[in-house]
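Please decode residue identities from the backbone states below.
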């Protein structure tokens, strides 16, 4: 692009950078009050991550009691609680109803649109926004600030300067870069003196480390020679080749994970997850991911206990393992007495030594508390969301950057995280509502 390709300055009351849920909610509130609102996004269409999240059923929020709901935000609870009191699960459902989209509560307490889809809701929302005069500018990539504090937008036709009385940045975190949340805004804000904590994976999978018994001397020597030749050894982090080929993608259902980190924070929950080619991922793993990630950052690894049969007591498992098996193989015995087969049985063979497998006490203990060591979170671009972002200390109560008067932040850009289950989307809306009201006050002043 030629350096001379500079378009005329575009003037507006409010420039919203980012056309995801946080940006669109602020656009709705501000335009309803008569503000001239322009929304900019680097992609060709709005709400791309929102649509992807709704592909398997759009989880809007959660219907549990507020006291329990706010606990899901961990360390950020004291900061987010006032925002969620202003706009939480009930308000979000009422907002959807106002767009003509009914909602219902699923058996897990999660709240969904009646038709389970994101597209009808987004269409109704965009129709409302356009009727209120919101102007959308697609393929506008924000590159920072120019002369006289104009926003600099890189467009297919040249550089577009935008002069706004107030700006809302709603650019998401660093996950799913192909949908627009690439974290490219981090150095732009840091260059302006805004404190930003490093982005990192949240609600993510993990790579495992091998935890089997130490190899015999001959096998250790062989592994050393393999590493010298650039070949993977049996001690390379990750599942064995046999396990990967047969069980990558296999779901572990009706299991439980227990984990206590080095700071004394504990997790104990039933659910399900999936064995991947390199480790583990899925809803139950996502729920404990923040504890595992932080423990890996502190100590290089984290080991959780997997209960393969949470419906059975430890005594019952030991009784069944000890039951005489006659001529049956151990695999047949475990399947017949405990229903352990497939990926669950494969994990035992993967992680236990031959001696452990044939010791009833040690085997029974492993069935109830199989240690699985994870050594790395999966990359941010594979994560559902990210932690880190603009520090709360860098923002006013209205979410305006202390170092940049008139510039506000909302959504996943701010340093908070939450599990899946509607909590992420609800907090994005709550921060957007707080920022929009702050912008209203700022414009009035």
């Amino acid at each position: 692009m030629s350096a001379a390709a500079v378009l005329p300055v575009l003037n507006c009351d409010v420039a919203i950078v980012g056309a995801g849920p946080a940006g669109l909610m602020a656009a709705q509130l501000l335009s309803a009050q008569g503000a001239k609102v322009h929304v900019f996004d680097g992609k060709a269409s709005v709400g791309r991550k929102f649509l992807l999240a709704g592909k398997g059923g759009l989880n809007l929020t959660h219907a549990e009691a507020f006291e329990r709901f706010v606990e899901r935000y961990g360390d950020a609870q004291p900061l987010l609680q006032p925002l969620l009191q202003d706009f939480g699960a009930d308000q979000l459902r009422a907002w959807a109803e106002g767009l003509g989209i009914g909602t219902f509560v699923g058996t897990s307490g999660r709240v969904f649109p009646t038709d389970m889809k994101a597209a009808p809701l987004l269409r109704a929302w965009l129709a409302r926004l356009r009727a209120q005069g919101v102007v959308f500018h697609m393929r506008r990539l924000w590159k920072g600030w120019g002369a006289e504090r104009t926003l600099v937008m890189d467009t297919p036709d040249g550089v577009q300067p935008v002069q706004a009385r107030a700006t809302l940045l709603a650019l998401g975190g660093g996950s799913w870069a192909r949908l627009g949340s690439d974290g490219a805004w981090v150095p732009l804000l840091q260059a302006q003196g805004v404190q930003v904590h490093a982005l990192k994976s949240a609600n993510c999978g993990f790579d495992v480390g091998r935890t089997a018994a130490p190899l015999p001397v001959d096998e250790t020597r062989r592994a050393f020679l393999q590493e010298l030749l650039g070949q993977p050894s049996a001690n390379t982090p990750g599942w064995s080749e046999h396990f990967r080929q047969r069980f990558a993608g296999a779901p572990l259902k009706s299991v439980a994970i227990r984990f206590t980190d080095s700071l004394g924070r504990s997790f104990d929950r039933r659910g399900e997850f999936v064995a991947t080619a390199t480790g583990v991922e899925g809803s139950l793993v996502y729920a404990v991911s923040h504890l595992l990630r932080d423990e890996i950052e502190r100590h290089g690894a984290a080991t959780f206990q997997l209960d393969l049969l949470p419906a059975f007591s430890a005594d019952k498992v030991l009784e069944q393992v000890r039951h005489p098996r006659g001529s049956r193989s151990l695999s047949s015995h475990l399947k017949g007495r405990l229903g352990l087969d497939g990926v669950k049985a494969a994990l035992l063979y993967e992680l236990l030594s031959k001696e452990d497998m044939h010791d009833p006490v040690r085997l029974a203990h492993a069935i109830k508390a199989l240690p699985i060591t994870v050594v790395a979170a999966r990359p941010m671009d594979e994560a559902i969301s990210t932690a880190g972002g603009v520090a709360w200390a860098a923002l006013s109560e209205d979410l305006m950057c202390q170092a940049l008067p008139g510039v506000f932040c909302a959504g996943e850009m701010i340093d908070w995280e939450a599990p899946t289950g509607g909590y992420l989307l609800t907090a994005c809306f709550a921060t957007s509502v707080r920022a929009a009201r702050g912008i209203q006050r700022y414009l009035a002043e």
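Observation: Residues 10 and 162 are 5 Å apart (CA to CA).
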